[in-house]
From TrEMBL:
The lineage of its organism: Eukaryota, Metazoa, Chordata, Craniata, Vertebrata. It holds the Pfam family F-box-like. It comes from Physeter macrocephalus. InterPro entries: F-box-like_dom_sf (IPR036047), F-box_dom (IPR001810), FBXW2 (IPR042627), WD40/YVTN_repeat-like_dom_sf (IPR015943), WD40_repeat_CS (IPR019775), WD40_repeat_dom_sf (IPR036322), WD40_rpt (IPR001680). This is F-box/WD repeat-containing protein 2-like isoform X1. The gene is LOC112061877. Residues 64-111 form the F-box domain.
Amino acid sequence: METGKFFHNLMERKDFETWLDNISVTFLSLTDLQKNETLDHLISLSGAVQLRHLSNNLETLLKRDFLKLLPLELSFYLLKWLDPQTLLTCCLVSKQWNKVISACTEVWQTACKNLGWQIDDSVQDALHWKKVYLKAILRMKQLEDHEAFETSSLIGHSARVYALYYKDGLLCTGSDDLSAKLWDVSTGQCVYGIQTHTCAAVKFDEQKLVTGSFDNTVACWEWSSGARTQHFRGHTGAGPISNIASSLKSSLIPLGRVSHSPWCFPSKR
């Protein structure tokens, strides 16, 4: 009995396949309008199981991911025709798109070139150039919005600050309160603070500070102790010592004043 039922179902399957072949040939011979009417009629006859099956398969057929299906070289070629803003939008489509777009070195190098960057072709890291581009775009937007620079206040002097000198992350300030201070710009902390004359110009290295004053004198100071190690006089007339021009490792310190001749003083090294 079971054997007969098996052969009966097998014959039904064969009959179905024959019928399906015949209707397929007929369907292919129809016009597009007739095909659409046929599909509409079949859909109207379908139940929940058939409609769910149709929905799942249509999504696969209609929403083909060309970036996933194409060879990587062809994907890169197509991406080259898109502008950077469109590429960034495409990165949001899916993880796969983001992965492919972020791996296209030439696309991001070109985007950086269009912003005026000098490109080192030996660097073939696509993610590096994408980050360079994004950072540049962010900075340009910050410039447009007047938010490109961070500001902070260094609180410590009790009078006007006349002199500033910046080097290697450190800022020296000279004030009318007869003091000079050395600041760590990144933290805002005062590294050294020493008593001086009123400073119109300052210059420093790791061990010492040189100041030019409104009283026509120049002085050298030791950061660690605050002691004045040298004191120079020579300028006369009105106007402060406004410029200290040399490296402090030199044996001479050239000085300048507004509308007066420069002087050189010996420096203890």
